[in-house]
Amino acid sequence: MSADDWWKCGIVYQVYPRSFQDSNGDGIGDLGGIRARLDHLVSLGVDAVWISPIYPSPMADFGYDISDFCGIDPRFGTLDGFDALVQEAHARELKIILDFVPNHTSDRHPWFVQSRSARSDPRRDWYIWRDPAPGGGPPNNWLGNFGGPAWAFDPATGQYYGHSFLKEQPDLNWRNPEVRAAMYEVLRFWLRRGVDGFRVDVLSQIIKDAQFRDNPPNPDFIEGQDPFFRWLMLYNTDLPEVQPIVAEMRRVVDEFSDARSSRVLIGELYLPLARLVAYYGLNTEGMLEGVQLPFNFQLIATEWQAARIDRLVRDYEAALPAGAQPNWVLGNHDRSRIASRVGPRMARLAAMLLLTLRGTPTLYYGDEIGMTDVPIPADEVQDPFEKNKPGMGLGRDPERTPMQWSAAAHAGFTTGTPWLRLAADWPTRNVEAQSQDAGSMLALYRRLIALRRAQPALNRGNYEALDAEDEVLAYARSFEAQRLVVLLNFGATPAPISPALMPRQPIVLASTDPARAESIEGSLVLAPCEGVVLGAVDDKGPATR
Fold first, then answer.
1. pLDDT tens-place values along the chain, 545 residues long
2. Active-site position among 22, 73, 201, 397
3. Which of 130, 137, 184, 136 is CA-nearest to residue 160?
4. Who's near 278: CB < 8 A, 6+ residues apart?
5. Whole-prediction pTM
6. Does the annotation count 201 as an active-site position?
7. Residue 356: exposure state from Cβ atoms within 10 A (0-12, 13-18, ≥19)
């Protein structure tokens, strides 16, 4: 791939730093741990490491409540240690992507301390302050994502401040040009240190309605659901005024792009497809001036059936603006792990789907060894989401447990006591064990990634939906004269494949079944939950099996 479009052909790997690798025995992962495990990422074959927040923080929301945007929390290391990580990653041709959290700060951030000190303080308007509603109470009916009103009363100044998440996370006022300028300087601070891009947290929520109108009722709300969905977020998310700000962010990041390497913006956006694609920022001249990758989370929410996924991919491809880069995600630090959602056999099929669809894939740490959600007893819960809304299954601790490296104590994650308990299967489900097993999930991920890197049809080719029968999802990837066919059996019974779907002189370039032969003798029948990538004999290469 060329240096300037690495994010188009590359693979992003998300590290949740608290849980990746501990280097000092305190039970919490850190930058030194990430540095120590860079060679695992190289052997896996990914191109970029996205690191969840590592900034100074009181940890009310485990780093998403930031008290200094331009520092490193001592739990994770130092700025010098971060610089060393960037240098060592770049030496291995790995990119570094940081979380950028523009919607809010910690309530202990100096900006907010000043803002709440007096109504007349110059930084008062850096946050969202409102008088109580007539008769008292919060200014409107907006709700916080983690429970309760999205407003906290400040007795000292007699006003409420807005917080989309915890009360310890006051929202910044992005309508204030001084706020925008300060936050763009944060981007530049890290870009000057060599960062290759940012994943932008809750991007759609950074602008709120200027009139602070009540949200309307959600007609689809059912009692017993998360109360947050009682109202439609009409006036505090995805407002039109967000788009010019996204374009400003893009221009800041583009200041640091050059012929050697472009910087990338990835937007966290839980939105319907029609709204999601707006964040590519298609302007009147036909140029894309928004984030290069508005995160596409559709595979996390969709029903795991061939017809549903086929429809989803077709709709997504049709909705993309000309020149837009698609992207796909199976899981992250906020959602149940793929192996828990669909089961271990189907998780192998999901890996092939993720790594053969058109666009940039993002892997979540541990998925490459099939890690599953870990039940966390009530007295060990860490996540404020679960603490604020207990018993609703909303806690995120289960998908944030420590990485399972080996059969050593605490799975090789720490010499101390892990901050979250490990899965019970860590003595056998770990990187070290799976590295020695040609049939393991890790071996499958490595084969698929190697194939994707080796075959232009997979890393930059076009997508063609194919019509298949029963529970088979079929599509072709083509680049110039090369055409590969992907066949995925989502069914519980064997699936005969029509010869019309297969290339001439077909050969199996990859299969989720390690026992599958490369050659196809006679007809092809896929086993339940089996997927294959087919090419012509000429497509066979040293990295394909």
1. 445 689 999 999 999 999 999 999 999 999 999 999 999 999 999 999 999 999 999 999 999 999 999 999 999 999 999 999 999 999 999 999 999 999 999 999 999 999 999 999 999 999 999 999 999 999 999 999 999 999 999 999 999 999 999 999 999 999 999 999 999 999 999 999 999 999 999 999 999 999 999 999 999 999 988 999 999 999 999 999 999 999 999 999 999 998 778 999 999 999 999 999 999 999 989 999 999 999 999 999 999 999 999 999 999 999 999 999 999 999 999 999 999 999 999 999 999 999 999 999 999 999 999 999 999 999 999 999 999 999 888 999 999 999 999 999 999 999 999 999 999 999 999 999 999 999 999 999 999 999 999 999 999 999 999 999 889 999 999 999 999 999 999 999 999 999 999 998 899 999 999 999 999 988 999 999 999 999 987 776 544 43
2. 201
3. 130
4. 243, 290
5. 0.96
6. yes
7. buried
- Structure-token match 């447990």, residue found: 401
**Which one from 178, 255, 380, 469 is the annotated catalytic residue?**
255
Residue 295 Cα distances to 47, 271, 330, 385, 523, angstroms: 17, 9, 11, 22, 39
- The Cα 456–Cα 479 span in angstroms is 6
Find where tokens 């063609």 sit: 464
* Positive/negative CA dihedral, 65, 250, 205, 400: negative
Q: What is the dihedral of CA 389, 108, 189, 11, to 10 degrees?
A: -10
255 assigned to active site: yes
- What is the signed CA dihedral for 275, 281, 283, 289, rounded to 10 degrees? 180
User: What contacts 335, CB < 8 A, 6 or more positions away?
Assistant: 297, 300, 399
